[in-house]
Amino acid sequence: MSNGLAAVYFIVSLVATLYAAAVFADKLDKLGHRLGLPEALLGLLTAAGADAPELASAVAALTSGAKDTGFGVLVGASVLNVATMLGLSVVVCGCVRLRREQLVLEGSVAAGVALLVVLMMFGVLPAWAVLVVAVVLLTPYVAVVALAEGHVLSVRRRIALRRTMGERHRRMPLRSREIWQPLLLIVPAVAAIVLGSIGMVHAAIHLGHSAGMPDVLIGTLVLAVVTSLPNAYTGIRLGIAGRGSALVSETMNSNTINLVGGIMIPALFVTFASGALERADAIWLLVATVLATALLFPRGGIRRVGGGVLVLSWIAFAVVQAVFG
Fold first, then answer.
1. Which of 55, 3, 88, 91 is nearest to 224 (CA)?
2. 250: domain CATH number?
3. Which domain holds residue 216?
4. What gap in Å lies between CA 155 and CA 148, rounded to an integer?
5. What is the CA radius of gyration of the chain?
6. What whole-number distance in Å separates Cα of residue 324 and Cα of residue 319?
7. At what angle do helices 229-240 and 244-259 cross, to 10 degrees?
8. What does the pLDDT look like over 196-237, one tens digit per residue?
9. What are the backbone dihedrals phi and psi of residue 303, each rounded to the nearest 5 degrees, phi first?
10. Total number of domains constituting the chain
């Protein structure tokens, strides 16, 4: 394949993937909004749609044997998610805030999962142990969702848990068509995302190798950036709408999905490179997650200066990749 044909192939695959992911995430968010779901759940739904290109590209890279590229996509995209979804959103809209109860839950889970990846990369814990601990860590999150929406606890305790899940929306009457039409989009959207991601990965690897780029840089500086665009779009949209709870939930859940689905589970079957750059990338993601949580903690939330810090953190990350990659 010539470089010109690979570039065309990359652009076509990119456009198809990003469009399908944006439509998918938008439809899920609107459906959940009309169903009256809390903001944390809406953020999780949006993350599931917008995160699909990152995960699909990483899996496509892994199945093609480019393990370093797959790792770079997920870690690089996760660092970029913090910078664009949170940092850039704050720069654009001026402020993002949410209930501290939700922040503690979202931030601790995301930081805990990132820490597990660091421990795995340094050989402190094997892949199977990391996955087991991750499941244990995620169980309270699922429990909060189930108990807040169920009737097992007293009304007062359910209200307390629902505060942790963010603001709720008034349930709106829905016709059956308004439910099944978005659901019918799932199969073609996922198919477009998967096929587009496979095309992007093969074209990016071909172009990267022609330019002499290492596989990990193809992941962190090329594929991570382009596959993060749906997350950046949905994040900024939520920020402008003043939906800080959904925004933070989407950011943290996107990164958790990346690390669990794209690194921890595949690590049971393949061995990722654990060189100095890969270890530094994992630590950088952990620090960025903790930093974002700390900047969000004040009662007034995170403001433009804090958002700028998060954006600059990714720029520094990209420079490190370019210099030491």
1. 55
2. 1.20.1420.30
3. 3-324
4. 9
5. 19
6. 8
7. 160
8. 777 777 788 888 888 777 877 888 888 888 778 777 877 888
9. -115, -175
10. 1
